[in-house]
């Protein structure tokens, strides 16, 4: 063994508690590493290294400067392909200082198993409904998030889905790929009434684009940006039911909560004008999938385009996936080469800055001061 290896061996054997037998073995250590001692050393090193569980697939799959920044921190990064179920998270919990997560099930049970080692949860994104925020606050675990980075691309995807639905894009392209010349008649966006539910950043970006198409914009939300709505001529509604009974197109962008779960239900679908469609780039749980399917089958709902499902990925036999009046994309609304690096860097900087004790962080649960 070289001098350097001997020094490393002596350094770490002095740091860990080992038995008298192992001390004797270390004394006569010459040509090979003692397995018992080095298992103990590995255990100590593991405890000394910051371990991060990385589960967001967009972060992992998309090139950008976030990869170099993560590598430069010297963390031990364990990668998994999310979103992970509670069962899978429970298998992994307890061995990590930080979660850099997407829509994984971070329940009370997961958090209880994760402490005392877990120091921070950094969410890639803004949706926090899969995290038990009340428990994180109780346990004093900060939950970071990434506001202000994906509103442009999600709004664009909203109109991608809406145009594809109203212009019969999917069946038209399917036909030409089969060598058929199918000429279907679609609809304009111009002068259509669009109801935007939730007027945060994404809702506002949808409104800007709707006005550019010459649409009549209706809005509902607890947050009402007066100056913006006056500038863009948004017609305010006092209830969700009023929006449904008035508008040709419904576009929900509100956060998921107990009150907003199944906001789109049988009762509200019955209020829609004839020929109405819904485009959902918010959360799958905002819509009752069974009610949507019934309304499509009956013709009450002319079309449903969604980027989100209650269960992701959905079962292969999920009826909505193949319904002729539905378009489903695989939660890719914020997954662009421009948006992912912005979101990834913000999520990673939240994690790095918190662990280093310096720099801005965007904290969602109030455990530490937030830059926003």
Description:
The chain is α/β, with parallel strands linked by helices. It has helices spanning 3-15, 20-27, 35-48, 57-61, 65-72, 86-92, 108-114, 133-138, 151-166, 169-177, 201-212, 226-232, 240-246, 266-269, 289-298, 339-356, and strands spanning 51-54, 76-79, 98-101, 120-123, 143-144, 193-197, 216-220, 235-236, 249-252, 277-280, 303-306, 326-328. Strands 8-7-6-9-10-11-12 form a 7-stranded parallel sheet, sandwiched between helices. The model is unreliable at 1-31 (pLDDT under 50).
Summarize the topology.
Elements: H1 3-15, H2 20-27, H3 35-48, E1 51-54, H4 57-61, H5 65-72, E2 76-79, H6 86-92, E3 98-101, H7 108-114, E4 120-123, H8 133-138, E5 143-144, H9 151-166, H10 169-177, E6 193-197, H11 201-212, E7 216-220, H12 226-232, E8 235-236, H13 240-246, E9 249-252, H14 266-269, E10 277-280, H15 289-298, E11 303-306, E12 326-328, H16 339-356
As a percent range, the share of strand residues is: 5-15%
CATH C-level name of the largest domain: Alpha Beta
Radius of gyration of CA atoms, rounded to a whole number? 26 Å
Number of domains: 3
Count the DSSP helices: 16
Average of pLDDT? 90
Shape: globular
Alpha carbon gap, first and last residue:
55 Å
CATH superfamily of the largest domain: NAD(P)-binding Rossmann-like Domain
Class based on secondary structure composition and strand pairing: alpha/beta
Strand order in the largest sheet: 8-7-6-9-10-11-12
Q: Would you give the CATH topology of the largest domain?
A: Rossmann fold
């Amino acid at each position: 063994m070289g001098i350097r290896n001997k020094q490393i061996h002596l350094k770490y054997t002095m740091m860990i508690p080992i038995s008298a037998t192992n001390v004797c073995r270390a004394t006569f250590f010459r040509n090979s590493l003692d397995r018992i001692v080095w298992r103990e050393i590995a255990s100590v090193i593991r405890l000394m290294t910051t371990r991060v569980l990385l589960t967001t697939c967009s972060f992992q799959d998309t090139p950008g400067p976030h990869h170099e920044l993560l590598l430069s921190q010297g963390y031990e990064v364990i990668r998994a392909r999310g979103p992970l179920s509670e069962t899978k998270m429970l298998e992994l919990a307890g061995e990590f200082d930080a979660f850099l997560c997407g829509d994984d099930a971070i329940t009370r049970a997961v958090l209880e198993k994760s402490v005392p080692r877990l120091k921070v949860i950094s969410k890639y994104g803004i949706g926090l409904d899969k995290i038990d925020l009340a428990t994180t606050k109780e346990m004093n675990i900060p939950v970071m998030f990434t506001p202000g980075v994906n509103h442009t691309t999600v709004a664009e995807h909203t109109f991608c889905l809406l145009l594809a639905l109203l212009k019969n894009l999917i069946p038209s392209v399917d036909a030409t790929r089969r060598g058929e010349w199918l000429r279907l008649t679609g609809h304009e966006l111009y002068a259509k009434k669009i109801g935007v539910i939730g007027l945060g950043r994404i809702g506002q970006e949808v409104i800007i684009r709707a006005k550019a198409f010459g649409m009549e914009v209706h809005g509902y939300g607890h947050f009402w940006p007066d100056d913006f709505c006056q500038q863009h001529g948004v017609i305010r509604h006092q209830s969700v039911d009023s929006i449904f009974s008035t508008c040709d197109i419904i576009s929900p962008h509100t956060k998921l909560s107990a009150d907003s779960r199944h906001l789109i239900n049988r009762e509200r679908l019955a209020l829609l004008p004839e020929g109405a469609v819904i485009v959902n780039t918010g959360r799958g749980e905002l819509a009752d999938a069974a009610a949507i399917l019934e309304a499509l089958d009956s013709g009450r709902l002319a079309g449903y385009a969604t980027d989100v499902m209650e269960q992701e990925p959905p079962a292969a036999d999920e009826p909505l996936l193949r319904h002729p009046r539905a378009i489903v994309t695989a939660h890719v609304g914020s997954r662009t080469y421009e948006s992912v690096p912005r979101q990834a860097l913000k999520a990673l900087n939240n994690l790095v800055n918190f662990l280093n004790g310096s720099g801005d962080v965007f904290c969602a649960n109030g455990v530490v001061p937030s830059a926003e």
